[in-house]
Amino acid sequence: MNFPSNLRYTKDHEWVLLEGTTAKIGITEFAQRELGDIVFVDIPTTGKSLAAEDVFGTVEAVKTVSDLFLPVAGTIGSVNEELEGSPELVNTDPYGDGWMVTITVNNPADVEGLLTADQYKALVGE
């Protein structure tokens, strides 16, 4: 399983890539494997300011729907429009083309408080 070291992770299985004050967010390879085949991604929060751990959308797999939690406080800037027609990108490329949203982070230092790749790897038992 892949745990890119340039990302930060949450216990809820989201990943964060911080570039300045903008963060790209998606779900981890572990999460997409646990969910199974992703058939729909719903993110109705574009432009909204949310607190850390607020739900920013849902991901639907064949047998379940799971909430998506914002790792750090910020404003949802954009949603990956490719997921509308190709939600399976979350399964095939969770750290690349399967990203979900970008946000403007309220406090970039908050990202440093998230799990490192090694800490996340230990959390999921890999």
Provide the fold topology.
Blueprint lengths: L7 E2 L4 E6 L2 E6 L1 H7 L2 E5 L6 E2 L4 E7 L3 E5 L4 E6 L2 H4 L3 H4 L8 E5 L11 H7 L3
Structure description:
The chain has 126 residues and is of the alpha+beta class. The protein has a single domain, classed as Beta Barrel (OB fold (Dihydrolipoamide Acetyltransferase, E2P)), CATH 2.40.50.100. The protein is 17% helix and 35% strand. The strands form two sheets. A six-stranded antiparallel β-sheet has the order 1-2-3-9-8-5. A three-stranded antiparallel β-sheet has the order 4-6-7. Strand 6 (55-61) and strand 7 (65-69) form a beta hairpin. The chain is globular, with a radius of gyration of 13 Å. Belongs to the GcvH family. The glycine cleavage system is composed of four proteins: P, T, L and H.
Query: What is the CATH homologous superfamily assignment?
Result: RNA polymerase II/Efflux pump adaptor protein, barrel-sandwich hybrid domain
Percent of residues in beta strands = 25-35%
Q: Profile the largest sheet.
A: 6 strands, antiparallel
Helix content: 10-25%
- Chain-averaged pLDDT: 96
Shape: globular
Q: Which consecutive residue ranges, at least 5 long each, have pLDDT under 50?
A: none
Question: How many E-type strands?
Answer: 9
Q: Which keywords apply here?
A:
single chain; 126 residues; alpha+beta; OB fold (Dihydrolipoamide Acetyltransferase, E2P); 6-stranded antiparallel β-sheet; 3-stranded antiparallel β-sheet; 9 strands; 17% helix; Glycine cleavage system H protein; Single_hybrid_motif; lipoyl
